[in-house]
Amino acid sequence: MADEPNWEDIFGEQPAESAPKSAREAAAHGTDLSADSATPADGAVPVDPARSPHVGSTPQRSGQPMTRREARAAQDSAAAKRGDGSHLPAVTQAAREADAFATFEELTAGTTQPESNASAAAAAGTPNSSGEPPRKKRRWGLIIGLPLLIIALLGAGVAAYAWVNYEDKIREVLGWEIPNDFEGSGNGEEVVITVNSGDIGSDIARSLNVAGVTMSFDAFYDLLLAQETDPAFFPGNYSLQKEMSAQSALDALLDPENIVTDRLLITEGTTLPNALEIISETTGIALADLHAASEDLEHFGLPAEAVSLEGYLFPATYELDGSQDPYAVLDLMVNTMYEKLDAAGVAVEDRYRILTMAALVQREAGPNTDDFYKIARVFYNRLDQDMLLQSDATVAYGTGNLHTVWTTDAERADASNPYNTYANPGLPVGPIGLPGELAIDAAMNPADGDWLFFVPINLATGETVFTTNVDDHEAAAQQLRDWCAASDENGSYC
Q1: CB-CB contact of 407 with 396 (8 Å)
Q2: Which of 245, 233, 246 is nearest to 198 (CA)?
């Protein structure tokens, strides 16, 4: 470019008036204003011939200050004689180390210093014949180091990816077994586990793991498979602790002393038949007496459309004193549901409709609270467009399969099932479980959206895909089928 200074302009001899005037300026120019080299009034830096072995190469010019290069050379010569290492250039350690590496531009331009007297002088740590400080021979460190660094980073990335995606296989190859079971009988933090009628080993293994009682599903499930005889589990609520070994958890569930009798716990989504069994186990009330009381719908003031007490018992924890009869316990739960509906703004005449929708949402939704409102919207959209709801959960409930949402082609085609929303239009004939406050609120306040389909693709996390067309829905449904088939633990949810 025009007017760009050349090399000599930058590093050539400078006029006297450009000499540094202060210690800060001297440091910036590479000169030394220490006591050993006091600066005369005219700004020249003197050199002591008696202390410099190379004084002949840097003659003083009478009446003229030396250039910075001459001053530096003389200074280095004097320091070399003293042997204190101060003849080296006045730069920081970081700068000296950086100088050992040639820059990319210098290397590619062929500017590395060849073997010569100058390089020999540099190797000896002394100034060269021109009086300049020795230049260190350039090295190929940067050229070699940069690719190595890139390779190392790439290797680390590959290793991290492999560990995240193939940890189990890596551990298997290397013999690094990952622990899957706690030790001991718990950490002292109580957890109430509900065993429902019809629960099998995989159901209980999943419940224990989700609640934090056992470290893994496999720890308890594999223990059950190793038993000579199948353990007998009775419905009810059991007091356990978090972080129990699988064996300790099994022993606790088989010990009647751990059944909770002073608190009645009914969880969201529990069905009426299971709720009655848990009430019986908790209170000691005969199950037959509870069934008889639950069929007296007029006593509980249910809407005329109600076909059973299903959906009208509010799921919660109730403190009991042991004196309640069947009607007293059921009255407590029904009245609590009415209070929750009133608080949510549900009119008396809308109780049946809202509870039916809320129970459907409760059964279909996973742990993601936002999905409750989106699922409600899907069902309302389908009703508005005169589409069949096509809920497998309703079909399964009508067949008596209360622990699954999977159905067969024949079951979905059976219009005699009043809960079959594949064959019958509109809402099912009544609730299919006990909804909680969140599901009730979703039924009252659905999200905005134009979705017509949804399907969970991971029942453990509740990840759900919402779509507006059949093709996308079918693709998501296949993801769910693949997930269910991936492991025994996954299968326990399906």
Answers
A1: yes
A2: 233
pTM of the model: 0.64
Q: 413 near 343, Cβ under 8 Å?
A: no
Please report the domains of the chain, with CATH numbers, ordered by start residue. Answer: 179-260 (3.30.1490.480), 271-451 (no CATH)
pLDDT at 231: 93
141 contacts 97 by C-beta, under 8 angstroms: no
Element (H, E) at 489: helix 488-491
The per-residue pLDDT for range 394-422, each reduced to its tens digit, is: 999 999 988 888 899 999 999 999 999 99
What confidence tens digit (pLDDT) does each residue in 189-246 have? Answer: 999 999 998 899 999 999 999 999 999 999 999 999 999 999 999 999 999 999 999 9
Longest dimension (CA), the chain: 126
Q: Cα(99)–Cα(112) distance, rounded to whole angstroms?
A: 12
Give the Cα separation of 425 and 380 in Å (integer): 13
**Which neighbouring-strand residues pair with 453?**
467
Which helix (H) or strand (E) segment is 453 a member of? strand 453-458
